Amino acid sequence: MDVPLPLLLGSIAVSIAVCYLIFVRNGAAGKRRPLPPGPRGWPVLGNLPQLGDKPHQTMCALAREYGPLFRLRFGCAEVVVAASADVAAQFLRVHDANFSNRPPNSGAEHVAYNYQDLVFAPYGARWRALRKLCALHLFSAKALEDLRAVREGEVALMVRNLARQAAATAPVVLGQEANVCATNTLARATIGRRVFAVDGGEGAREFKEMVVELMQLAGVFNVGDFVPVLRPLDPQGVVAKMKRLHRRYDDMMNGFINERKDGGKPDGFAAGEHSNDLLSVLLARMQEEQKVDGDGEKVTETDIKALLLNLFTAGTDTTSSTVEWALAELIRHPDVLKEVQHELDTVVGKGRLVSESDLPRLPYLAAVIKETFRLHPSTPLSLPREAAGDCEVDGYSIPKGTTLLVNVWAIGRDPAMWPDPLEYRPARFLPGGTHAEVDVKGSDFGLIPFGAGRRICAGLSWGLRMVTLMTATLLHGFDWALANGETPDKLNMEEAYGLTLQRAVPLMVQPVPRLLPSAYGLWNWSSYCRCKLR
Ligand code: HEM
């Protein structure tokens, strides 16, 4: 974009003045206690240019230099980064009430219906009501149990589809298969039907790309969010992309709602199956003119679209990319794969697929899932929080308005917490291991892939159940060979940064069925034998 020089210079001058005023104010506040240490930043932009293309890794390195609580400046915004379990616990347990809001950002404004969603809703009655709605209809113990057959059915469908593909020579893009499964499962629970054909197709690829694009855009530290006068200029083009993406999501959400209003269904999809799926409940509330929080505004179509958007974006790629990382780690660690398959064969046998009722009897599998979350948390910097008031943490002043980033990725690799932190070793979570009692549900701050405190992931119970069931079923159902002549020791494990942690190179595999054909619902022995013999 061409920006006239006088306008640019004027903008920078105003930015310097605004930032200076903020520093003077924060300097006065900081007299009581020092601000946390941190690297010196650039004029105006602060530390933004130093973040690199993988900010969670840069911030991990900075923690080694400045300690587990350090300070950055993004334009005019004060930022603190928590990079140890102890410091994270200070923020998310001791001071959680003070950090229960999210800072303003262009993603919430331009994609998430101007903060009308759940993820970015200000902490208060409306946020509470939205969480309650989700808990009641999707994530409570009862709702989870009611929807168990949906999850098991969709996972079985994915596995059957993979068993069919195993007879072909084309490699499978595992993340894509897992994404179709995660998305269809969530869709059946929320809008009462699948959104993709089981083998995915173009629509599924497009949807995954949309979620990945959203996560990439949300992961960009947008200069316009931090240097107010540069905001209208949108120097990185992020806002323009967000607006375009929002229109595509909005079309999709309108499609879901209009189809339900018309009582119809698009070609090729099963009719709606739940008269009490989340969409039905929300539409009924809208028609009855009920209020979201019993007190504020009535439920509107925008509320419904914003909530569905949250669920479809926060709940799909997070789940499928964790499954993809798990499979990649197990392909690299055949001894661990053998151990987990032995456990699965012993508990489940070879004549059927894994069911959710098997999961409590699979401790080694549970350890595999924890170890995967430790090394590959799907949101490496969690979601940001904002200080509602001044507070003190670890002897440092944290002024009101400071943005908090919790480096979940760095905490999972902290050598002070985890012996041999870079080694994939699930046994550390088994009885007798160094971390036998640790779980991922927000009370052990060394392992918080779902965050912690009041704003902990709303879909934790669903996400954890899906990741565990999908991984278990894939490991039980197949042996895995890498495609394209790749060898396990050379498998590329690089990360591509976004708000969620994608693999830089998607995992391409050849599944080789290892159960009786009837377990997959396959009765065609010839196609089964062909894939067994390859
Ligand atoms: C592997 C799966 C998942 C991971 C690792 C994950 C991780 C996270 C994290 C780190 C946060 C921020 C928590 C914080 O601020 O402390 C979050 C928030 C959230 N997640 Fe998840 N998530 C997953 C699956 C899901 C699913 C399946 C859904 C819904 C279908 C979901 C919906 C949400 C929502 C609505 C929030 C915002 C909560 C709030 O602001 O109150 N997530 N998630």
Outline of this structure?
By secondary structure, the chain is α+β, with helices and mostly antiparallel strands.
Description:
It is a single chain. The chain has a 4-stranded mixed sheet. It is α+β, with helices and mostly antiparallel strands and 534 residues long. It has a single domain, classed as Cytochrome p450, CATH 1.10.630. Helix 7 (148-166) packs parallel to helix 18 (460-477), helix 8 runs antiparallel to helix 14 (317-332) and helix 9 (201-219) crosses helix 11 (238-262). It is built from 19 helices and 11 strands.
Give structural attributes.
534 residues; alpha+beta; Cytochrome p450; 4-stranded mixed sheet; 3-stranded antiparallel sheet; 48% helix; globular; binds protoporphyrin IX containing FE; Cyt_P450; iron ion binding; flavonoid biosynthesis; monooxygenase
The amount of beta strand, in percent, is 5-15%
Largest beta sheet: what is the strand line-up?
Answer: 1-2-7-4
| Unreliable segments of 5+ consecutive residues | 266-272, 529-534
The overall pLDDT, averaged over residues, is: 90
Please identify the top-level CATH class: Mainly Alpha
Question: What is the tally of helical segments?
Answer: 19
Radius of gyration: 24 Å
* Helix share, percent: 40-55%
Number of domains: 1
Report the major sheet: 4 strands, mixed
Calculate the terminal CA-CA distance, rounded to whole Å: 54 Å
Instruction: Describe the global form.
Output: globular
Count of individual beta strands: 11
Reported CATH architecture = Orthogonal Bundle
CATH level-four homologous superfamily name: Cytochrome P450
- Structural class determined from secondary elements: alpha+beta
CATH topology: Cytochrome p450
* Ligands bound to this protein structure: protoporphyrin IX containing FE
- State the order of secondary-structure elements, H for helix, E for strand: HHEEHHHHHEHHHHHHHHHEEEEHHEEEEH
Subcellular location: Membrane
Pathway: Secondary metabolite biosynthesis; flavonoid biosynthesis
GO cellular component, one term: membrane
Cofactor: heme
